[in-house]
Design goal:
This protein has 172 residues and is mostly helical. It has helices at residues 3-109, 112-119, 124-133, 136-149, 151-161. The longest helix has 107 residues, at 3-109. The chain is rod-shaped and about 150 Å long.
């Protein structure tokens, strides 16, 4: 064999091996490129998902803030209403006290039997409040007359007028 022939074969073999190495490297780099593109797509998709979640969270935060502001406003309104109601109840209590004082004065000057006939038809709590304002002598006369008209009502009224605990005496 000739030197020239060996040299050509050797050169051919070297080129052939280089092509094979190049193809292998190109295939590996093509696969790496495909992997990188797949990873890039996956990351882009994940970024879109995160952006959407962030937007949803911002929307929910804004809604929660609006609801919180609304609740604070409603709380302020409720407190104002409560204050108004408390003030009105105080006015009513003052007026009731004035009315009961006047009623006690009127019943003090009325006949016991006439007063008793009216009082037995009143709410028991109002009767208690009225009797607490009457002078003792007048209250006794009216209660006595009431005993002949409605003894049950007179007993209930007497019971409510009696303190639960008499100071100095222990209930055993």
């Amino acid at each position: 064999m000739n030197k020239y022939y060996l040299k050509n074969n050797f050169l051919f073999l070297a080129v052939f091996l280089s092509v094979i190495v190049f193809c292998a490297a190109f295939t590996a780099s093509a696969e790496s490129l495909a992997d990188l593109q797949a990873i890039s797509k996956s990351l882009d998709k994940r970024k879109l998902e995160l952006d959407k979640r962030e937007k949803d969270i911002r929307t929910k935060e804004e809604r929660l803030k609006a609801l919180e502001d609304s609740l604070i406003q409603k709380d302020i309104e409720i407190r104002k209403m409560q204050d108004s109601i408390v003030a009105r109840l105080k006015e009513i209590k003052i007026q009731e006290d004035k009315n009961l004082d006047k009623l006690a004065k009127d019943y003090s000057s009325a006949k016991a039997k006439s007063a008793a006939q009216v009082i037995v038809k009143m709410d028991i709590e109002k009767s208690v409040q009225l009797f607490q304002r009457l002078p003792s002598m007048t209250a006794g006369k009216i209660l006595s007359a009431m005993g002949t008209i409605d003894p049950e009502y007179a007993a209930k009224l007497s019971e409510k007028l009696t303190p639960d605990k008499i100071q100095g005496i222990n209930a055993q």
